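Retro notes
What went well: the complex prediction finally ran end to end.
Inputs used:
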Amino acid sequence: MASATVGIAWLAVACEPTVLIGSCAQSTLADGGEAGASSTSEGVVGTSWSTGFEDGMCGYLAEQGYCYTRHEATLEIVQSPVHDGKFAAAFTVNGNATNEDRSQARCVRQGEMPKSAVYGAWYFIPEQRTSDGNWNLFHFLGGESEADSHALWDVSLANNADGKLVLSVFNFLTGSHPRIVNPPEVPIGRWFHVRFELRRSAQANGGVILYQDDTTVLTLQNLITDDTSWGQWYVGNYARILTPALTTVYVDDVTISEAP
Amino acid sequence: MTPRAISGAAGLALVLLAGPSFAEGGAPIQLRWQAPANCPQEAQVRQKLADLLGSNASDATASRLRAEGQIEQVGERFRLTLNIHYDLVNGTRVVQASACEDLGGVAAVTLALLFRAEHSSNAPLTARDLGGSSASVLGDGRTASSDNQTQSSETRSANEGDRVAGEEKNALETQNDSEKLKSEGQARASESRHSEPSHWRFVLSAPELRTDIGVLPDASYGIGLGAGARHDAWRFLIAGTWWLAQDYAPGSFVGYGAHFARLSGELSACHGFQVAGFELAPCLLFTLDDVAARGTGVGVSSSNPHTAWLSVGAGLQGLWSLGSRAALVFGVNGRAATSRPRFVSEGVGEISQVGPAALGIVLGCEWLL
């Protein structure tokens, strides 16, 4: 009897077949109309890609990307608010100071990043928040692989002296926040467009430009921007300490496009 | 005196007249016996029963009667508790006597009477038959029985018990009275149109209400039916269950999850034991689960794939008789899965995995046909 029990237990552990019960529909590969055209080859991130979450997360999955949640964060495809189309993505984090780990919900494009491109997304922040620490919207990472990588650039939210939210940038290669003069306030309860132009270079001839809607927020020229060939671009919501803690940001129409 | 008792007495008369030829073949009724060393032992009671039944008990395997007898010393007296079972019907007789030698005979006569009653009529024995009545040949019959199989702790008074024990002996010895009953018994037997009852009996289990945990992400609720056969204390059933479909979302990807539909089949083998008026039946179970799962969420498509796996387990069922042909069944079981499929949706990851073990409860009705 004991041997039979052990045998069954072994069989149960050894036999764990994976049943794929859901996958991206064929039509979703064309979400945004340009996903397929962006990939010139496997692992290469093209400069003509977009997703409006009309096919959920399939816009990422179709391009070897993915979405994830960690530490009490959630990701939900919602029908309101949306910037365009029927759906947008709601990234909710718990910016609770008691959390040792940063709550985060994000979607990632990865691969051989374009030499020069503009990374954009429409954001909607429904309520004012106070951030004590990094409240990140865009994150760029580079390396040989995800396991062997280091951070490059952050585009985040910070409170100005009046407590209003503004965009900020962090350069991981220098470990500094480039000074932004009179950054425009981030609107609350209204969609706004964040674009980050990145001209990758391992020498001091690269550059970055941050746009908020049609306003240029920051321009940096002639600097090392990326010392790697493989990279990741994170879009979503990542926070350390927020007040109130439970915070949702909505994202729609994420794009990678050619730099002008 | 009830017709049943008359019939039984007539049957006894028949066996008394028939002589002891059956003795060598053993008693046709399953009997378990416990008694102090100075009292009649099982072999003696069996021999007595065989002597009483004689050659009339031509088919020693045909009886559906089972009994457990126990003699206990109560002060200076002795008490016989005889639990008698006929399929799902149970009865208990309690007799006290000053000498335990008499009680072995009482048990043998009681069972012999019931054996004859069983074989002299189409009608199945009832709880009243098993428990006896005040008008029975055995005397006063301070016995306990009911359709609900409740067991009385009442016993005969001391004097009465002695009297009844004496009557039991008289019943064995008074062939004149038996002759009178013989004709009645024969008349009743002549009305029987059936042959000896089959050893195998068809069993229908319907409806079965089931719930379990450990198979799908949430507790499952199902309805089913089963069919099979009884052979003495053994019961073999094959049952099918349709489970309510359930939707499950793991949580962090809100709106993404799976829709599960499930069917299952179960093969069970149970052996019943009579305990305090109930039948308790340990069971060996083989369960085949078939689950169709469909990923859900915006942009997710699914071919609704099926997967099936076998589980092996054990359970315990309790049967509460609702009469001679029906019983209420309550059971608990545990099963170990031989395979643990992981249900995965692209982009979301693992939605659910079948647990290593499942715990189930079943409530149903069993019909003996």
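What we learned: The two ends of chain B are 30 Å apart (CA to CA).
What to try next: split runs per interface for comparison.
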